[in-house]
Hints:
Layout: E1 2-8, E2 11-17, H1 29-36, E3 46-52, E4 68-74, H2 84-96, E5 105-110, E6 113-119, E7 125-128, E8 140-144, E9 147-155, E10 159-164, E11 179-181, E12 191-199, E13 202-209, E14 213-215, H3 219-233, E15 238-243, E16 246-252, E17 258-262, E18 265-271
Parallel strand pairs: 2-3, 4-5, 10-12, 13-15
Antiparallel strand pairs: 1-2, 1-18, 3-4, 5-6, 6-7, 7-17, 8-9, 8-11, 9-10, 12-13, 13-14, 15-16, 16-17
Amino acid sequence: MNWVKGHGTENDFVLLHDPDGTEFPDLDAATVRALCDRRRGVGADGVLRVVRTDALTDGAPWVDEADWFMDFRNADGSTGEMCGNGVRVFAHYLAELGLVSRTGTVPIATRAGLRPVRFEADGQLTVDMGVPGLPGPDDIKVTASGRSWSAVSVDMGNPHAVAFVDTLDDPGALVEQPTWEPPSAFPVGVNIEFVVRRGPQHVALRVHERGVGETRSCGTGACAAAAVAASADGPAEAYQVDVPGGSLTITFLPNGHVEMTGPAVLTLRGEVVP
Ligand SMILES: N[C@@H](CCC[C@H](N)C(=O)O)C(=O)O
């Protein structure tokens, strides 16, 4: 099994090349966990299986609109609908292999639908992340390290709860899974962003990701945080969102979509010893 490692603002991934869907057709949770294990495996926040849409056998709706499907898995082996940092790394990987052109826009199919990716002249990538689903129906409370905050639920194709805190130390070590109320608000789990303001149109966050734990960045989470900040602040063109692993720019488009701009890096390649 050959793999490539990459990251976007230090949210890191193992990429598995499977264009025809024949290399890893039954990629199971145990294999994903083994690859992502930081002591016994490659070590990563998740796995990106790189598959052509016409190799998908489950009636995927995007086969006419995108050539490539990002089969995303969290480090615990669960599937995720979307991964904002992952989709930049995925597109950068395809471009490095010459499978897509860096000119124009490349639509990437995900479980949350199509995400068009654009290559910027400075090497960064911009993704149309769709329209943030905001706010959710419930009054949400999140609790971490014995402290609680009210939170706003945001649907970025995957579920988020955004809580504004006084300092980024307030949620504590984030080793334990933060909890939320009501439990019914997120029946299949949630990514939780703890956010502080840094200045006008500028926030910073820490994130506890569903299926992973605390990570160094979350692209969908950055979009969710910017959407909640902007809904409180009033119309804005763009927000800078600082994460422990770098910085992302979230731009608000007139059609209600948000675009996320940030880096993508490939770092290592290797082979699993049978
Ligand atoms: N790090 C990602 C989000 C990955 C998926 C998430 N853990 C989930 O289960 O929804 C990002 O950059 O968006």
